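User: Here's a structure from my thesis project, written as structure tokens. My advisor, Dr. K., wants to see whether a designed sequence matches the one we expressed. Can you design one independently, without my sequence as a hint?
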């Protein structure tokens, strides 16, 4: 199984990248992982809707034929950690790769959400997209430890 996390924009604050790197390092013991940072279209002074549409095209262009696309969206389904681990196990069992898509400041284009096998909400609260990436990699690490019966998840 291959796991990819595609996110729009960079962590300019430097707050979240160390945590992402730590959980990415841990995740690589379980799965082939790739973190993709895609450029923000809004930096080109485009209207918000047009920027989101262009970012969506780039995200959808990363989807391979074996990928289950998971769109991180505040209106998506809330899963607990065990349910997320079951989703990961189902993908593994069906020889699928997972591509998680995290939008930029304006969120994800509707086309990305519509193309997703799962629309996932990490919280009912609004999270900065860089913090969402950190929460996601930690939860994916937790999912793999659950699947292996390791003691990380309490």
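Assistant: Designed independently from the structure alone:
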């Amino acid at each position: 199984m291959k796991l990819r996390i595609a996110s729009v924009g960079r962590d300019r604050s430097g707050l979240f990248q160390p945590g992402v790197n730590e959980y990415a390092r841990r995740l690589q013991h379980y799965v082939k992982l790739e973190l993709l940072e895609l450029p923000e279209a809004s930096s080109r002074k485009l209207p918000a809707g047009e920027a989101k549409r262009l970012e969506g095209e780039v995200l959808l262009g990363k989807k391979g034929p074996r990928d289950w696309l998971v769109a991180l969206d505040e209106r998506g389904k809330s899963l607990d950690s065990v349910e997320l681990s079951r989703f990961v196990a189902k993908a593994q069992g069906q020889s699928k790769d997972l591509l998680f898509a995290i939008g930029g400041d304006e969120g994800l284009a509707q086309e990305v959400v519509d193309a997703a096998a799962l629309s996932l909400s990490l919280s009912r609260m609004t999270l900065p997209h860089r913090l969402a990436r950190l929460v996601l990699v930690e939860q994916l690490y937790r999912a793999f430890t659950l699947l292996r019966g390791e003691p990380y998840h309490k």
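When you compare it with your expressed construct, this may help: The first helix runs from residue 17 to 27.
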